[in-house]
Specification:
The complex is a heterodimer of chains A (about 280) and B (about 400). Chain A contains 14 helices and one strand. Chain A is mainly α and about 280 residues long. Chain A starts with a helix and ends with a helix. In chain B, a hairpin with a 6-residue loop joins strand 10 and strand 11. Classes of the chains: A mainly alpha (about 280), B alpha/beta (about 400). Strand 1 of chain A pairs antiparallel with strand 4 (about 90-95) of chain B, so a sheet runs across the interface.
Amino acid sequence: MRGPDDATEIVMNAAETVIDARRPSARYWRDLWAYRELLRILAWRDLAVRYRQAAFGLLWAVGRPLLTALVFTVVFGVIAGLPSGGPPYALVVLSGLLVWQLFAGGVQDAAQSLVSNAALVTKVYFPRMLAPAAAVVVALVDAASSLILLLVLATAYGWWPQPACLLLLLPALTLASILTLGAGLWLAALNVRYRDVRLVLPFALQIGLYLSPVAFTSAVVPERLQWLLLLNPLGGAIDLTRAAVLGLPAPSPLGLVLSTVWALAVFVSGALYFRATERSFADTI
Amino acid sequence: MATPALEVANLGKRYVLAGRAPDTLRDAFSAGLARIAGRSGSRQQGELWALRDVSFSLAEGECLGVVGANGAGKSTLLKLLSRVTHPTEGRIAVRGRVASLLEVGTGFHPELSGRENVYLNGALLGLRQAEIRSRFDAIVEFSGVERFLDEPVKRYSSGMYMRLAFAIAAHLEPEILVVDEVLAVGDAAFQRKCLGRLADLTREGRTILFVSHNLSALGALCTRGVLLESGRVACTGTIQQTIAAYVDRVLERRHHADLGPGQPGFRALRILDLGQPQPAVCDTLHPDGSYALEIACRLPASSGANLGFTLFNESDVGALSSSARDSLRELPSGDVVFRVPLPVDRLPSGTYRVEGAVWDGSGNLDQSDALLRFEIVNTRSALDVMGWKTRGATILERPWQALHDGNPS
């Protein structure tokens, strides 16, 4: 038997949907909202599968950033002898890696999100943006576990973060997420059309790792090259994170504004390109 | 109905044939460079209209059967209706939520348990968590996989997969349900259950679009039909009219098709009137005559080879089936002609079509919905004056006995 709630729902659902070849669906953004639970479920699915498949799921989540941080600390901190600007070098590296992994992991999974869900894309309708968005949500969950690791380690080093400064994490991670989603939308759409995106991307990300202030601080970059850092949209997010957790100097207002503009530009253009190509995903995938 | 549940107008979908557009970044770059350099890179692109000028409307509670050969555009039509892909031209107006019954396990993740997949699949089909939760028990009960609910579905049999998938879609309660060839899997009992559930849904006022190669399932479930041919509507009408038109076309095509060299399959079928001094081909059969179905075919050398046929009456109910190995222990290979006597006196009047298949252990080698069509005029039975809906597909041949006070007279 139907309750009164169901009755109202039917009336709502009975609204007419018109699909017209000449016009894009006016319902898209409403659909995106209506399908919001699918975003959570897709992200949950990927996390559940990953942690169920990997025999040592937790070891993977904690061990990977820890091991990378150890290598970078030895190479850049000990062998190259770069200054950390105060805090232990391992914490500098780990905080950089936190943001970098959010970006690189998110972009990589987002780029694959449509192709690896090809069976769904060709059989079921859902707002396609949810697939790369779910990949970014998964990357955010990973970043949260890295953050816990970072805070535990900072405490172990006796390097207490200022609670007030921790609030800076919010804009830092928001900035990084917008940039990641934007790049993810671009690459997910390109990956459907061009088969070699999958091959180029890991290489590009590897170069990006060394061009970003991940294994070193922005302060060690010589004065005459500082402008190059401003071109890297991820730099601002990393510097903000280090300011939040380690108390390093916050990035300059100019740097922050540029980072934000960069991130928004990538996001808006990515969303537009995605919308423009989305119609034909099921045909070309 | 004043406002139809579904209205399709001049719908068309064009595909650009693959292999023309650059599909790597490298090719896209060099094509771009060529264009900048002035060398026109405008290669002529091949295109294909998978669907064109398709218009129909469907009232609430109707069940429309979409009939057509492979590649006629049935799947494209369903993809457009379920919004998987966007039309090139035309317009679709839908009142209410459209849900499509997915192919086996689409949207199921093998590593997740049955329970988790119910939620995943429900969300994919546009249900909210609360809606799934309120239907969860009904879904599980219908699927009959309770005991395996917490096992990962990769350990499920394909039948269990199918049952769970169907159960979810059948409990979505969308206004319009799109069903594509789902009844190919699962045992007979479950297929009946699915058809029963679909029939319930139409009675509840749900509108159903049903694509199937199973003509008798179409005949049993649908009220109206659309026949697609090369992407265009060839015929609309009652489901019986549509199936008859489809059978016409299959017979015609069959007539023109020849088997490739060495390819196993049917070559020709005909009915012989054995009552004549010289057996003559005929297409109208009377119960007093003696007739045989003659099947010319090519059989593979494989040991498990067999062939068989089923006669379907005009309401697409199977009336009679037989396979060669039912009576022959050994079948020759290569070109063979079989003769099967037909018990015409047991079949009521009407038009019959012969569905047949040649198969071996690896599956069907040749299959056709309509190899032949013929007419039976059975005026001998008093049942014949009544409509076909009131009688069975076969007539009992044994004579009746009248018992008087329990004693044979």
